[in-house]
């Protein structure tokens, strides 16, 4: 397991999977260990994945200062990883909450990004959150599922702030609720640093006007991938985020939720690999 040192001295780990040109991968959660990403549906057949465990997660050390869990502070860790890899520029993929970290990195170090892939990423860094109305509209698309009657009322209560997260509505985050999805979801609590997650998007983490202005000047091509059934973000929000970038394209994966590489690995890997390999 490779280790590198962050600017503040924290020892951070990353995991290498697959062969080919490197693709740096930032996990979501926020602050979930990279293990949940697996091989990204077989993307390892096309690229060598460099999966970063953010500080305080997975095999990375817990920092002395908890304030360094804030998203904008984590940008320094990504840059330290790039330097450690000896890469002039990196292809960068980020999932979910990791998308905001990737956007902040691209805004601060545009010359270091060759290509950027944002997978089901809520654009918090752009000041564009997924609303409860977005999430409920997406959830209603699943009304024909056998688990919907139990899941939807609990989901409404959670979004209204009247209840804690309920495992009953976990199926809403997956395009296909099967044993693979259930096993994937069951690991979430053990893989997530909840204290760090509370700090990740805390006050001062984002400056949407500055980030929008910087990303409008980014010359690297950007792929924003949405799941057709995902509520956070819905495809419409992803398309709106794409308008911020100078060179961006959107892809909506049919029948996919928040973890599209599990719902249809072949579709997901084909889309991402085609974008990354484009001349």
Provide keyphrases for this structure.
279 residues, alpha/beta, Rossmann fold, eight-stranded mixed sheet, 8 strands, 16% strand
Plain-language structure description:
By secondary structure, the chain is of the alpha/beta class. It has a single domain, classed as Alpha/Beta hydrolase fold, catalytic domain (Rossmann fold, 3-Layer(aba) Sandwich). Helices cover 36% and strands 16% of the residues. The protein is built from eleven helices and eight strands. The chain has an eight-stranded mixed sheet with strand order 1-2-4-3-5-6-7-8, with helices on both faces. Helix 2 (98-108) links the parallel strand 5 and strand 6. Helix 1 (71-85) packs across helix 2 (98-108). The longest helix has 15 residues, at 71-85. The chain starts with a strand and ends with a helix. The mean pLDDT is 97.
CATH architecture annotation: 3-Layer(aba) Sandwich
The fraction of residues in strands falls at 15-25%
**Tally of helical runs:** 11
CATH C-level category:
Alpha Beta
Structural class: alpha/beta
Output mean pLDDT.
97
Overall tally of domains: 1
Shape: globular
Q: State the low-pLDDT regions, or none.
A: none
Topology-level CATH name: Rossmann fold
Tell me the quaternary state.
Answer: single chain
Question: Major beta sheet, specifics?
Answer: 8 strands, mixed
Helix content: 25-40%
- Sketch the topology as an H/E string, one letter per element: EEEEHEHEHHHHHHEHEHH
Distance between the termini: 32 Å
Q: Tally of extended strands?
A: 8
CATH superfamily: Alpha/Beta hydrolase fold, catalytic domain
Q: Largest beta sheet: what is the strand line-up?
A: 1-2-4-3-5-6-7-8
């Amino acid at each position: 397991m490779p280790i590198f040192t962050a600017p503040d001295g924290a020892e951070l780990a990353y995991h290498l999977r697959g062969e080919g040109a490197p693709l740096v991968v930032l996990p979501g959660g926020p602050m979930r260990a990279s293990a949940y990403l697996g091989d990204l549906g077989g993307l390892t057949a096309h690229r060598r994945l460099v999966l970063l465990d953010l500080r305080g997660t997975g095999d990375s050390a817990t920092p002395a200062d908890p304030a360094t869990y804030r998203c904008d502070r984590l940008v320094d860790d990504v840059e330290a990883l790039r330097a450690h890899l000896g890469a002039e520029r990196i292809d960068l993929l980020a999932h979910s909450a990791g998308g905001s970290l990737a956007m902040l990195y691209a805004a601060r170090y545009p010359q270091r990004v060759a290509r950027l892939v944002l997978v089901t990423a809520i654009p918090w860094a752009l000041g564009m959150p997924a609303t409860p109305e977005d999430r409920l509209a997406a959830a209603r698309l699943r009304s024909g599922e056998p688990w919907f009657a139990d899941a939807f009322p609990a989901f409404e209560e959670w979004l209204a702030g009247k209840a804690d997260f309920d495992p009953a509505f976990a199926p809403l985050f997956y395009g296909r609720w099967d044993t693979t999805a259930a096993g994937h979801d069951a690991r979430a609590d053990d893989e997530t640093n909840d204290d760090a997650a509370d700090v990740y998007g805390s006050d001062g983490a984002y400056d949407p006007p500055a980030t929008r202005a910087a990303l409008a000047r980014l010359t690297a091509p950007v792929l924003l991938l949405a799941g057709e059934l995902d509520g956070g973000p819905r495809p419409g929000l992803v398309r709106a985020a794409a308008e911020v970038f100078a060179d961006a394209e959107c892809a909506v994966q049919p029948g996919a939720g928040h973890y599209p590489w599990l719902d249809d690995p072949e579709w997901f890997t084909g889309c991402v690999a085609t974008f990354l390999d484009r001349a």
